[in-house]
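Figure 3 (text version): structure tokens given as input.
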């Protein structure tokens, strides 16, 4: 079972035209302020918006859009990465391929090329449709690259898989892109909505610092030698985000106890 392809253009057809326009405006606004890599990536040229003809409709399951480029998803799986240097056309195997498994990996197509930066793995991530999960099917991202993929503001590490919703923003090696499925309500993370609003005014965007639990709440030894935060799900998740302020402070407090 596969998702039905939908005729796509800049203004998607909908039963509620006002809602469609609102969704489209939000998508366009946030996309126009997405982050781009320090060095140009191949996808920017290959799928440049300047090449697109607005009057032409495209039959696609979804689109993946960077600030100035758009890739229309016409298959149930899309590979994101960096082709071997001598394999840009997919006709030659890399000299480094030394086993049947390696050969197979080298032959896999890269649909969205975020090279030439070596921070991007050959097959960094895949976006695919799973007809069995959740009920009715859904799109997912699987991470293969050693440097992971940011989904909205959370880092998904190598080997991880996460379901995607329309409006999710992925970041790989400094390139941000939005995943959008036609006909679905766009749900954009508030961080990126606020960022677009601030940058649109010409001001510099400085995210508000997230709140940090008080030391007494974080390290209250109530269970032998184990700090209370080990049993505090909220703070455990706070640490899991890799807070650069809390982790060093936590380490110092732990040593002082």
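Below: residues designed for each position.
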């Amino acid at each position: 079972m596969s998702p039905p392809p939908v005729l796509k253009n800049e203004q998607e057809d909908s039963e509620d035209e006002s809602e469609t326009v609102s969704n489209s405006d939000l998508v366009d606004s946030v996309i126009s302020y997405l982050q781009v890599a320090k060095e140009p990536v191949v996808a920017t040229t290959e799928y440049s918006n300047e090449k697109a003809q607005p009057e032409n409709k495209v039959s696609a399951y979804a689109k993946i859009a960077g600030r100035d480029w758009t890739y229309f998803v016409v298959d149930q799986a899309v590979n994101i990465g960096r082709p071997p240097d001598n394999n840009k056309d997919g006709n030659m195997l890399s000299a480094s391929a030394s086993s049947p498994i390696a050969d197979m990996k080298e032959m896999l197509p890269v649909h969205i090329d975020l090279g030439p930066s070596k921070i991007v793995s050959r097959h960094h991530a895949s976006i695919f449709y799973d007809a069995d999960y959740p009920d009715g099917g859904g799109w997912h991202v699987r991470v293969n690259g050693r440097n992971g993929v940011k989904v909205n503001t959370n880092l998904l590490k190598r080997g991880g898989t996460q379901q995607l919703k329309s409006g999710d923003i992925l970041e790989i090696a400094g390139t941000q892109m939005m995943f959008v499925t036609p006909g679905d309500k766009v749900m954009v993370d508030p961080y990126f909505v606020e960022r677009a609003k601030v940058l649109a005014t010409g001001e510099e965007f400085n995210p508000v610092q997230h709140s940090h639990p008080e030391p007494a709440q974080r390290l209250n030894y109530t269970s032998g030698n184990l700090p209370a935060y080990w049993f505090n799900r909220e703070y455990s998740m706070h640490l899991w985000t890799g807070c650069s302020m809390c982790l060093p402070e936590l380490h110092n407090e732990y040593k002082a106890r």
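The chain has two domains: 6-200, 215-256.
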